[in-house]
Predict the structure.
Amino acid sequence: MKVLVTGATSLIGRHVVSRLLERGDQVTVLQRRPSGITGVSEVCCDIASSHDTATHSSGPGTESESANGKTTEDLLANAMESRDAVIHLAAKVSISGRWDAFEAINIKGTERLINTAKRCGVARFVHVSTPSVAHAGRSLIGAPAGQANPEQVHGHYARSKAIGEKIALAANGQAMKVVALRPHIVWGPGDTQLIKRIVDRARAGRLLLVGSALALIDTTYIDNAADAIVAGLDNTDRAAGHALVISNGQPRTVSEIMQRILIASGIDIPLRHVPAGVAITAGTVIEHIWQALNRQDDPPMTRFLAEQLATAHWFDQRETHRLLNWQPSIGIEEGFERLAAFEQAESNS
């Protein structure tokens, strides 16, 4: 199969590309800068802008060739020509930031990819979304995926991804089958999003447990997330038009997840608790201050983050397993063992 993957340099993206290459697929990756991934063709451009010129490369070790003044629209069309499928992982992922930055990538970038894929006759489109598109701050206990609702979710990231997911699923039809997959709290060795942020905050004395920290949440080990996305590619006909949450299906308390990440990373410190109401109020205020000052670093708390830490969110996986013909292969215990081994090796290197 000939597959175009956006966002291939992310943790999930690299694992997805690796699986596609291992089974013999022809992979083209698209991102703003060269990926350094062996065995792929590359197109470097910014999907957030239709006017920037871009470059094309045949892979690592080669010089980028001039795009001859072509726009992003032109290069997207070239990248998708004769492709069987697109896996769209590229996104702005952050707990803070300006709305226009989220809008440019998560909404307009998605719309640009969808429209180009339709024009180029791409048959399958896997849109990678997030469960936060349907999380309005209330607990989700054994819940179905739910409809993306940009009017009820909190935070620019969740709202922009909700709109992007609706754009993608609206394009589902006979000519192009579209499925939206929502990996939930992905983690694993080499993770610079969740794991690194938790560890950095703990070392700086800024990691807080919100409320009792006994709310149950589900997570997804990286290998399972990548396998599920590839399964979504293979089962697009059956899953077309659906939004499906991906997780390990092993809910644990927020406190346990936090502590086990820290222990695996060689950190053994007590964590402080802050009342949920205080955290949500403080997060709302801090979020406004960060936006007013146009700060680019992560704030210590936002309303969205406080709600995620204070409420349960785990999901019924039966429909996901059935439609994707997939089951997670790495349990949470093995995942933490792998994480600890990786962190130990990193500290010894």
About this structure: The two ends are 38 Å apart (CA to CA).
